[in-house]
Every structure is written in C-alpha cells, then in structure tokens.
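User: Show me a protein chain along with its predicted structure.
Assistant: Here is one chain, sequence first, then structure tokens.
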Amino acid sequence: MSSNSLLTQTHDIIRYANTYKLEPDNPFDPEKVEKVLKEILQEAMENLVYDPDQCVKQAKWASYTIRKKVKELNFDRYKIISIVTIGEKRDQSVNIVCQFLWDSSKDRFSTISIENSNVYGIAYCFGLYYE
C-alpha cells in the first residue's frame, strides 16, 4: 500500500446533519446594543470639533468598534451591520435612509443619536437573522 492510500483511509470526511432550528438561542437584544452604541458614540464624539478628516476617522473607528462589541454579545445566527454618521451642526435638518430586505419577525435594530455643540452623531446597528 502506498502512503497516499493510508492517508485517505484514516481521514474520514465529517458530515453534519441539519438542525432544522428556526429560532436563535440568544436573540438580538436591542436594549443591550443601545448601551453599546451610546458608550462608543460618546467616546468617539468626546471633545470633537468638526474637521472632515477627523470625523471620517472617528466614524470608521466607532463603526468598527460597535460591530466588534456587539459580536462579543454572542447573538445566535445574526449578521451584524453597523453604520455611524458624524456631521457638522449648522442649524440644518438631516434625513438618513437605510434599506434592507427585512423580516420583521426576526430582524432587529438599535439606533442612537448624540450631539455636542459642534457635531452630531448617529449610530445604527442592525441584527439580520440568517438560518
């Protein structure tokens, strides 16, 4: 026998059965996520004065950190999407739109907005259920 045939005989392929599970064990909790959003967005905007380059960096950092912290909460079977917008306050109104294919019975989201004297910040975190 060659050494190649021995290797194929000793390493069987593992096959997993379908679970047919329709509900998560640890579902997305918007209240827990809102606490994370508030903590991270406050840290990102602390003493922040509007500068286009600095606001972009802070928004990217906040979005990455939110996604990382929410993933640490171990929500079962959810894809996590985080969006952060930081802009200058100049007596204007702002409309922000996010569109997803949404299952209202299982998908969840959390949002928060914070402002200081110079800038405003809006953070969204979406938990999209996947089977």
